[in-house]
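pasting for ref
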Amino acid sequence: MRRILVMGSSGSGKSTFARRLSAATGIPFVSLDAIYWKPGWVASDTGEFHERVTEAALRPQWIMDGNYISTGAGELRRQICDRVIWFDLPRRTCVLGIARRIAGSYGQVRPEMAEGCPERIDLEFFRYVWTYRQQQRPKLLKYFEGLRPDQSLVCFTDRTQASLYLKELSRMPHAASIH
């Protein structure tokens, strides 16, 4: 595996997992949030974001964390990835994940976030996470329908599965191959 998408709701643990997978495999980590956001939580314009994501996606190897399927070269990323790892966790788990994240890093910029975007309380963001399964999950399911037979989809329905995946990977002699 050389190009891996890590997708799912905010608060599911996908960024932490993607960073750990990158550390275990040596495959570079790419955060779509870091590409999308500018200092002060200013969104990139669509053309600029698409260009930056395309540039990142055309690199020979990556573990790319984030959804952004309707913008930011979503089709290109799906076409050239080898594997999709999907965090399909209950909304309660994700909302609690966001609350814990805010409590632990309020006012600080997380490693996967753009500079100048410190962790904050954002009620609209909580609503996005709370409604994710109803509003965003169907879009991801449709997106996954476009995967080819030679691409794999790994689905985690709880964080324990993700931890076990990384643990199994660490036992492999050549972790970068991720078979």
